[in-house]
Amino acid sequence: PGTLHVVATPIGNLGDLSPRALEILRTVSAICAEDTRHTRQLLAHFGLERPLLALHQHNEDAQAQQLVARLRAGDSLALVSDAGTPLVSDPGFRLVRAARAEGIRVSPVPGACAAIAALSVAGVPSDRFVFEGFLPAKAAARRERLGQLASETRTVMFYESAHRIEETLADMAAVFGGARRAVIARELTKLFETVLDGELTALQAQVAGDPNQRKGEFVVIVEGAGEDEDARIREGQRLYAKLSEYLK
Ligand code: SAM
């Protein structure tokens, strides 16, 4: 059988595509891409042209079976997403699982990942961290998810887009408390790369006051709850439970 190569692509700066990634993209039978037009442009930049197959969240289950059949027949394939590492808030998990279930070799070609790039420059405790990806789009669900994370003591990382960054920072300040420290890593490896750090209230004001700070792509990293804060939140939850009992 062939090999499924899971290939990381740049998150902005095209210089971050590794020589090994290029070599593999050049030699596989076909490349499974989240958006074939996007990947065609990337390949064109490097003077490559390979057959592209669309693999996105709407067809992944159906496509996976056909792709596994090709791998079994001996074709080697590459899996890429639009940016960064496939499967990290991107399609690919079903294909990888289906290939592994058939005993097909699945091999990584590591490279850029926005979350890890952000963590590497954030200057927050990084021995233990939690990756939460995108928060739910709906306000109630988003606040509920943040509520579940309020007493998390590990560093927590989120992905966010330009059109929700303000709401998300406001919700974070409300749920975690405005004094919780955070880092906003924007447009990493690109022309307008900025990394802001500070207390959530100050970051919220900074982003609200500068339209440029609301443009592009964001990783938000929130420091974990301190031990004291943890105890305070537990005490709050205990009082809330008591109060709910009383109000029944
Ligand atoms: N698979 C990708 C990875 O490995 O990072 C993530 C894909 S996810 C659909 C896209 C999100 O990643 C963006 O909304 C943003 O939160 C984050 N992201 C991607 N590129 C970024 C960059 N250059 N700077 C900051 N965040 C970025």
TrEMBL record:
Family membership noted in the UniProt record: Belongs to the methyltransferase superfamily. RsmI family.
Record domain Tetrapyrrole methylase: where: 3-203
Location of the protein in the cell: Cytoplasm
Keywords tagged on the record: Cytoplasm, Methyltransferase, rRNA processing, S-adenosyl-L-methionine, Transferase
Main EC class the enzyme belongs to: transferase
The protein, known as: Ribosomal RNA small subunit methyltransferase I
HAMAP family noted in UniProt: 16SrRNA_methyltr_I (MF_01877)
The reaction(s) this protein catalyses: cytidine(1402) in 16S rRNA + S-adenosyl-L-methionine = 2'-O-methylcytidine(1402) in 16S rRNA + S-adenosyl-L-homocysteine + H(+)
EC code(s) of this entry: 2.1.1.198
GO MF entry, a single one: rRNA (cytosine-2'-O-)-methyltransferase activity
SUPFAM superfamilies registered for this protein in UniProt: Tetrapyrrole methylase (SSF53790)
A Pfam family the protein falls into: RsmI_C
